[in-house]
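Task: fold both queries, return tokens.
Query 1:
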Amino acid sequence: MAMFRIAAATFLAAASGVLPAAAETTAEFFKGKTITINIGVPAGGDYDVRGRLLARHMDRHIPGAPAIVARNMPGAGGVVSANWLSALAPRDGTALLMVMQNMPLAQALQMEGVKFKSEEYNWIGNMTDSPNLLSVMSTSRVKTVEDARRMEATIASAGPGSGSYSYTAAANLIGGTKFRIVTGYAGGSHMNLAMERGEVDGRGSNAWSAWKSTKPDWIAEKKLVHLIQIALKRHPDLPDVPLLLELASNDLDRKVVRLLSADTAISKALATSPGVPPDRVEALRRAYDATMKDPKFLEEADKRGVDVNPVSGEEVQKIVTEIVETEPEVRRRAGNIVHGRKD
């Protein structure tokens, strides 16, 4: 009897011209669409170079071959774009963001203006795990960490919540350096210009990979002195540059610096908004993985000096969750450090 009712219902639906719609495939959804890769900093820096590089190559690997465009969305050291991805971006897979690497940390430390939950993003992949560097121009009197403990050097920063601020403040409060932090710079290209003009001695954060891709002439001409690297181990290219971790003198501070350094494993990561259907997230992740192996992509990356050492979206998701769920005492101490507060 039940089978008769189902058959009768199907016959009536067909007769009326109303049949249940077949589920839309990922390729059908993306076909004819435009995906936007948003970049949370101004044009000219390493995030911008990488975002636009992805926009030129990733479309070939997404089902339905959608168009991809890149646009800059600067503000508050990446917080504006991170908030946008969480609350305002389309939740259909057409909105991607090159997330500033310190955003999970900014969330964990409850930095001002943070309204996003980075563990709720759908992370697509990460292009490199390059260490960050606190660097000065070779014209600076400060050439080593020991120099920085004896004399002042001015360091450009976007402001509290940014890596350029957090790493420099940590060096001061954990390592005893005397860096004077100058805030308000909109992005890396602005900081580089300020360094060239002599307005500041250096900048508080830039990835080694970013220096190589955006300022190869500075490296070749030895215009930079790298004072501290932020990572969990020294990079092979920088064996004589001390880790921020090595400046810590007690267990709590070592845990704090490990927290501050953990996001170097996701230094150039791409994410889409919460709530995107799982099949589209999967398609975007696999398209990203394929792009990282694409000969045309790798050829252009090499020409532009962009290093490629990818981490999967699934692994990035785990790292982000570990950062935001760090034990409270470590987060409290880290928060005091990046704000320059006393315990």
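Query 1 returned. Query 2:
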Amino acid sequence: MRTGGCLCGAVRYSVRGDPVHVRRCHCANCRKESGSAFTVYAHWPVEAFEVSGEISSYDGRGFCPRCGSRLLDTSNPGDTLIEIRIGSLDEAPFQLKPDDEIWVKRRESWIPPVEGAAQHDESATQHDEN
């Protein structure tokens, strides 16, 4: 069981088991939404996820309406997987290493590739388009 939440504590969640996969993304959208050079997220089965508190959404990006912490993806409510920003987990380090990196053509030259992770110039899936 892993727990996480937003900066102010108004939103809390838990996930059971291990994620289906972990990904690091360097696309323009992930850079802007995170305010960093990349974002790291993981997918868990929806049935392994529980949340308390209110989630606001902008263009499928779920965040706490009080403190603005980016927590999860809300773009496909019928999906069988939930996408969680792993930086919102409580315990760190959490031993969740990316399986692959996407949009590496936008990766900063000072950021090394994740050792052993598949590298994709653009998106490996429909997650990001820029």
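Both queries returned. Flag for query 2: Helices lie at 28-34.
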